[in-house]
Amino acid sequence: MNAATDRSHLVLIGGRSGVGKTSTLHALHALLTEADVRHAVIEGDYLDLAHPAPHEHRLTERNLRAVWAGYRELGYRRLVYTNTVSPRYADDLAAAMGDEPRVTAVLLTADDEAAHHRLAQRETGDELARHVERSDRAAVELERGCPPSVHRLDTTTADPSAVARQIAVLAGWVPPATHPAR
């Protein structure tokens, strides 16, 4: 491999709860698999899911470094990583990979009504109220905290497959769709 093809590429997908990160991740994985684009997927929420939360020990970065080393050893160079706040921490996550990846950071957005409706599909009672409150707070914090270089994609009325295609095109992993002349 030459230096251009040996360089890794990290795609970060973040956004408030109820914005469609997981659905988009699954759609992106299916799209890339269908297009035979070699890639790995990591759901960042599970890299440091513990109680008490070990954030002060940077366990997310430590675990990402270890997991990515295994993928890289097997020849993977494209990583899709999802986590609510990942676009805010693009530099830290890229550094944790240890191989100076190119980064495409995407913040998924949705209006309150759409996000709340999606949350209501998976949460109930007090848990729903807590998730809605955290989601609303995260939406404001993410919009303020993500730099302008982070791509913003509105999922309010978008199908996860369409959002996944937009992300794959932004990353340069698939060509833009061409439409036949009418």
TrEMBL record:
Instruction: Specify the domain of life of the species encoding this protein.
Output: Bacteria
What protein am I looking at?
A: ATPase
